[in-house]
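User: For a benchmark we're assembling, each entry needs the component sequences followed by a predicted structure for the full assembly. Here are entry 17's components. Please fill in the structure.
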Amino acid sequence: MHWRSCKYEAFRIMRKWSHKFMTSDQSPSVFVFRQLSNCRNTMEAADSPRKDSPATPEENSTKKGLRTVNGVQYDFNDPRFAGMGTRAIKRLLKQEHWEATRDERTKIQREKQRRKKEERQKLVEEGVLEPRPKRQRHQEMSLSNVGVVIDCAFTSYMSEKELHSMQSQIVHCYSKNRTAPLSMKTSITSFDEALRTTFDKKTSSWTNWKNVDFLTETYDEKFDKDNLIYLSADSDNVAHELEDGKTYIIGGIVDKNRYKGLCQNKAVEQGIKTAQLPIGEYIHMASRKVLTVNQVYEIMLKWLEYRDWKRAFMDVIPLRKLKESVIVDPKQEEAGSEEQKAEKGEAEEAIDAPQANEDDADSKEKEATT
Ligand SMILES: C[S@@+](CC[C@H](N)C(=O)[O-])C[C@H]1O[C@@H](n2cnc3c(N)ncnc32)[C@H](O)[C@@H]1O
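Assistant: Structure for entry 17:
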């Protein structure tokens, strides 16, 4: 027994039996010591192997390795858990249980929704509630002339967790595209086995998605290179608008900034134009301007709706990121740059600054806004 459990056991015994040693002439420490000795004897007896009779289920449950998770007993010494810690095994078993009970949960959820719908319908009939406005049907959705490709050629760069997150982000994009006033024709390229399996597991309805093509091919096999623009926070070009007839590529990767410049370099190598979103013109971000796939996708949808980048950014970029950032006031920015120009002019007149210093200042200013 570890000394900490021993100490805990001593306290437990003192608390439980305090009424006894208050009345007996035995000192508390002697009393606790005796109780602990009894406890140790019992444990040693339980630990020693029995040759005569097989272990009862109760004894089994106290044996190291046998644990109950979600009401089912598992042997944690099973070779399939080899090399895994207790927590990891529990997490795995819980995940398996969650997957196994998916149908059951869906059934309960559907039943709950059906009941809710019936109750609501009743209230509408009684005039208590207004009927819901009719949802825009898919066929009535307007499709813009701007296309999107989510380039999923990076599954080998991601952990399983990141792959799951990537899949959720694509689901998110799809759901936003369905309800947007102007939607975008979307293609998921380099859709490989790993991603397909994740989709099958998590969102089996993907095969019925409208306006989305799942392609095993790469984007350059399917699209005319001249109409492609790879979006990348690392690009030197800025997309001031989304052009009709163009297809914008979003790098389908969740990498927590591990692979800086990955998509930019890929596009440059393939001779495909690149552009970053004009975030720096509207928001001076405290952190890097790298957004997630679904955020970029949603910003594009919002731009198509408002034709206003600032509104699009403010609608989509999470509040927590905005809080740490400075929102640019275009008027102040203009006045500021006039002042800067004037100051710069004066400085240039006063000191004949070397060209390198000017370049330095320029690149520093750029760094601050990107
Ligand atoms: C999580 S980022 C991937 C970052 C990755 N390290 C890379 O090399 O791009 C996912 C994708 O969103 C798009 N993206 C993110 N932030 C962007 C920005 N500020 N401007 C343009 N595209 C952006 C890019 O297409 C990028 O590949």
